[in-house]
Amino acid sequence: MRATGGNNLYRNLVVNTYGACSGDGTWNSHLKDPISSIQIPEEPGHIAIEVHSYWDAGKFAAQKADIDRLFTNLDTYIVKRLGVPVIIGEWGGGTNDDNDANVTFAGYFSGKAREAGIAACWWMGLSDGSDRIVPAWTMPRTKDAILQK
Predict the structure, then answer these.
(1) What is the DSSP-derived secondary structure letter of residue 16?
(2) What is the pLDDT of residues 13-33, one digit of tens each?
(3) What is the pLDDT of residues 37-55, one digit of tens each?
């Protein structure tokens, strides 16, 4: 890709782990080690690693330590080991409900991402269905929790 001309030598390239798996959250048990074994195809520079991270917001209290471990692992296995940034291209709490569980989970997860210097994009539901036309926030409390941290 880098040799195809234009600015491709200098463009940022985002590489996913296998299945974009982060190794934590609601992944199958056989997808627990993609971040520890990923290799980048070139020297650090214009490259980043993307993962996805899905959780069950209703079980946030039981998963809080696992979320903390996720961010520690991203730092250990990608940022420090490979010397490249991480993007969480999709994350969420399992439902598109603007309930207390999603609000609490979203605020915590977003705060951990910001603290770690990791860009994190909530996947679906914040503005969904007919709200995309209006536009309006389907999940305004969750959106506010993400932005306040």
Answers:
(1) E
(2) 999 998 888 877 666 666 667
(3) 899 988 889 999 999 999 9
The model's pTM is 0.89
- Say how far apart CA 47 and CA 17 lie, in whole Å: 13
End-to-end CA distance of the chain: give it in Å, rounded: 37
- Backbone phi, then psi, for 49, in 5-degree steps? -110, 135
Domain of residue 133, CATH code: 3.20.20.80
Written as one string, the DSSP assignment of 27-93 is: --GGGS-HHHH---SS-SSSEEEEEEEE--GGGHHHHHHHHHHHHHHIIIIIIIHH---EEEEEEE-
Count of domains forming the chain? 1
Cβ of 16: how many Cβ atoms within 10 Å?
Answer: 15
Distance (Å) of CA 31 to CA 21, 75, 102? 7, 18, 25
**3-class secondary structure, 14:** strand
Residue-range definition of the domain harbouring residue 19: 2-148
Give residues with Cβ within 8 angstroms of 35, minimum separation 6: 17, 21, 22, 23, 49, 51, 73, 74, 77, 78
